[in-house]
Model the fold of this input.
Amino acid sequence: MSEAKTFRHGIHPPEHKELTAGRAIERIKFPDRVVLPLSQHIGAPSRPLVKAGDKVFRGQVIAEPGGFVSVPLHSSVTGTVVAIRKHHHPNGSLAECIVIDVDHTSAQTLYDGYARDWESMSSAQLLEEIRQGGFVGLGGAAFPTHVKLAVPEGKHARWLLINGCECEPYLTSDHRIMLEWADSILLGIKVMARILGTEKSYIAVENNKWDAIKALRDRIPADMPCELVPLETKYPQGAEKMLITAVLKKEVPSGKLPIDVQVVVQNVGTAAGIGDWFAFGQPLIERVVTVTGPGVVHPTTLLAPVGMSLAEVLTHCGGLTDDAREILFGGPMMGTPQQFLDVPILKGTSGIVCLTEGQLQQRQEYPCIRCSACLDACPVYLNPSSLGALARAGKYDDMIGQHIMDCMECGSCSYVCPSNIPLVQRFRVAKGLLREKQAREKAA
Ligand code: SF4
Ligand code: SF4
Done:
């Protein structure tokens, strides 16, 4: 067997995927209430089209896009709107949400669900359909899919790259989607390739998921210009720039986007969702979530309605263990710690990882010993040691010259640092402050 493709640098943290990789996707029963934030994506929040007291149906549009970089929001249940009010959001803020009480007498069939004759549609019509389906990137960033598929004037997408790496430890929702929903993924790829006019699609999967590689490879029709590419299992293999380097041997320059090297990257879950939209008209109203980690009693792969609360999901999985101490939305490398159990599952929630006391013990920080382990780990060739010293001294402006804005906050440097220096945490703070400063300057 030839050596698996990959990128240079990166790390190999323990995978811990065995907790859920073998567990088939399980649909959770409908809750009593869903809470749907108007902002579940990068860009302008959606604008409500309903008010308290309105009856809504599962799959009905309840909020319109707030701009071009925005998407409509659909009700994930049939029920009654009880309020539009602020509620805890997984990003730590209080955000405007549409609250819907579920009608348990309803069959919860899909509103206006029908197959789209996608082959007869133009590229512009297909793009508009995807916008109407409310799709955002399901790999974590939640960037509106129709915007990513709208190639700017003067640029051309030659390749569509489907990301099935799921390189974060613990997470296995993409793995299960590839095993169980291969046909939906392939339909989604055909639609996106048609929109973009690409000459070939690639599905990149890490080689710790051979069953998924086989399942997908066996389903690719002989006449479909699509190739499955096994990649080395390494973190952060699923980061867009790393993926492009590994599969196509192309470097996306600093400050540029994949389209600048003629590539569009989409996640396998997004492809499956788009496939289902065209196959039977289901918008983005539910998602596959890995609920895992030593801090949850029964690790499970769930199919949950968007808007269901974290508390209800955990209850379905047997609750938290006595020594559970932290709950993350996302994986342990880049996930967001949660403070409240009433936060809702979002369109972009790929996993819920529950960590225990023993995994979180604060490690004492020591001075940098200039071992260069962080330089060897950084996938974008930054100097985390030097950046860390600048961040510690509060010299944020000086970090710009050392390309801090290219940092993808993958956490590889912190992970390998023998002095336990919280590098990525400092970089997140520095980048946030620099962005605020830039915004202030722009406004002035
Ligand atoms: S967090 Fe930033 S600096 Fe650290 S390894 Fe990742 S990209 Fe490099
Ligand atoms: S890994 Fe830690 S100790 Fe080693 S050079 Fe980087 S910051 Fe310094």
About this structure: Residues 368-374, 384-385, 388, 416-419, 421 surround iron/sulfur cluster (ligand 2) (CB under 6 Å). The chain is about 30% helix and 20% strand. The chain has two domains: 1-29+108-361, 373-443.
